[in-house]
Design a protein that fits this description.
The chain is an alpha/beta fold. The chain has helices at residues 2-17, 24-29, 38-49, 53-65, 73-89, 147-152, 171-187, 227-238, 291-311, 332-340, 370-380, 401-407, 418-424, 437-456, and strands at residues 92-105, 109-115, 119-121, 123-125, 137-144, 161-164, 192-196, 222-225, 244-249, 252-266, 271-281, 317-324, 348-356, 363-367, 411-415. It folds into two domains: 2-102 and 255-456, Zn peptidases (Aminopeptidase, 3-Layer(aba) Sandwich); 107-250, Glucose Oxidase, domain 1 (3-Layer(bba) Sandwich). Strands 3-2-9-5-6-7-8-4 form an eight-stranded mixed β-sheet, with helices on both faces. A seven-stranded mixed β-sheet has the order 1-10-12-11-13-15-14, with helices on both faces. The structure holds zinc ion.
């Protein structure tokens, strides 16, 4: 708490000093056209950082409803809470739009080294995996370092459990083994596949996540194991020892289930049909409480609108928040939104997604035309007092992607520190305890600033 209060008083100092005591260099960097927005931006920022309201709302969501896998009762209850709470906030056009989502159920699962002497492996089945036979399956392990290595040792894979012991570099690079490892192993005759958890070394933490089976290839069960367990198996194999593992998984798909995207708005006072969209995904994996991925992204984008409403700010264009369903294992929420809004896609003038956490040091990324980028960079100068660096490349997000593609919409991403984010990503450790209140408030302040100025400018953001 004391850390929070310090942040708040610093912020007020900055807000009060605006225009009077700012160093000349900072003043000349800020373009004159932004002057009319400074007062509203100061109020939004001060309100976001005045207390830990947003963090407490995140704690309420994650403590009360827990993790929120697509098709689960937890997610349904959380959706009803979000819809009711947005109404209490006084947002306009609050609605839950139905979406049918796939329903994968983990069931009980375990992996044990049975020889050399019995040793339980810390594991998590991958989303979409099939089950093992009820009694489990037992086989010797073939450890490979990458796909090339598997190719070279294809003759040894038949009847084995293939372990991809691929050290984590970046999520983008390493995740290929989680999504495609099972089919690559099945093609060379493996009976199951294991993948070293995709994330920086944690505290023997396995990371789940989605996988998919290639067309026409035998579906074999697949799971992630903690890096420490993967390394142990690697060392045993390197010493020439046979490692035998028993894998037992009940994972299966059930019929599609009902879910929904939840929306709320600040209706534009002059151009209500033109939309500034901010969004996130509301579903999570069935572990931890989905706090960083992606409860917090939903709270901070929603908070941008709540703050505007609270302060009586109603910009020229509509600001819409979308809490999308089923990002983790299907993307049905984002695609349903595009399909329902195809005719209005061109009237989406900007879209921002928060789905990379809020861990400090956070930054913003943008993808759009050079003309749009010039405006965005200028608005970005308003975030300098909050400590944000210049806006980088790489805007976008899985849920806003479909509508943005349809409407050629400029996109932004709010990005938390990626090492801290991926250390707990898709693990039982993804809980609110790891997120600091001032990180949440800062994200809400930055997103509110971007959304407000873009929605309020007399001119549309160039495409
Ligand atoms: Zn996510």
């Amino acid at each position: 708490m004391s850390g929070m209060l310090r942040t708040v008083s610093c912020l007020f100092a900055v807000a009060l000093a605006c225009g009077a005591a700012l160093p000349l260099s900072a003043q000349s960097a800020a373009p004159a056209w932004l002057a009319p927005y400074r007062d509203a931006v100061s109020r939004l920022t001060a309100a976001a950082q005045a207390d830990d309201f947003a963090w407490r709302r995140l704690a309420e969501l994650t403590d009360t409803y827990g993790n929120r896998l697509s098709g689960s009762e937890n997610l349904q209850r959380a959706i009803r809470w979000a819809e009711a709470t947005m109404k209490t906030d006084g947002l306009a056009n609050v609605r839950a739009e139905k979406v049918l989502v796939p329903r994968w159920v983990r069931g009980r699962e375990s992996a044990v080294i049975v020889d050399p002497p019995e040793h339980p492996i810390v594991m998590l089945g991958l989303g979409g995996s099939v089950a093992t036979p009820a009694a489990g399956l037992e086989a010797d392990v073939l450890v490979v370092k990458n796909y090339k290595d598997l190719e070279a040792r294809a003759a040894d894979a038949k009847g084995r459990i293939v372990l991809f012991n691929v050290p984590y570099t970046t999520y983008g690079e390493t995740v290929a083994y989680r999504s495609g490892g099972a089919s690559a192993a099945a093609k060379v005759g493996a009976v199951a596949s294991l993948v070293r958890a995709v994330g920086p070394m944690g505290l023997r933490t396995p990371h789940t996540g989605n996988m998919s089976y290639a067309e026409g290839v035998t579906k074999i069960p697949t799971a992630a194991i903690a890096a420490e367990d993967a390394n142990r198996i690697q060392r045993l194999a390197d010493r020439g020892l046979r490692v035998r593992v028993r894998l037992t998984m009940e994972a299966h798909m059930e019929p599609d289930a009902e879910s929904a995207n939840v929306f709320g708005e600040i209706t534009g006072r002059e151009f209500p049909k033109e939309v500034v969209l901010v969004g996130c995904h509301f579903d999570s994996w069935d572990l931890g409480t989905g706090a960083s991925d992606n409860g917090v992204g939903c709270i901070v984008t929603w908070e941008a609108l709540r703050l505007m409403k609270h302060l009586g700010l109603r910009p020229r264009r509509t600001v819409r928040v979308g809490l999308f369903t089923n990002e983790e294992n299907g993307l049905r929420g984002g695609t349903a939104y595009r399909d329902a809004n195809l005719a209005a896609a061109g009237d989406h003038i900007f879209a921002l997604e928060s789905d990379s956490g809020v861990f400090a040091p956070a930054s913003l990324g943008f993808t759009g035309s050079d003309a749009a980028r010039r405006v965005i960079d200028e608005i970005g100068t308003l975030l300098t007092p909050l400590g944000f660096p210049a806006i980088g490349p790489g805007g976008g997000g899985a849920d806003i992607g479909p509508i943005a593609q349809a409407g050629k919409v400029p996109m932004m991403a709010y990005n938390g520190d990626s090492t801290r984010y991926f250390t707990i990503h898709h693990t039982p450790a993804d809980t609110v305890d790891r997120i600091a209140p001032d990180e949440v408030s800062k994200a809400a302040a930055a997103i509110a600033t971007m959304a407000y100025v873009i929605a309020e400018r007399p001119e549309r953001l160039p495409k």
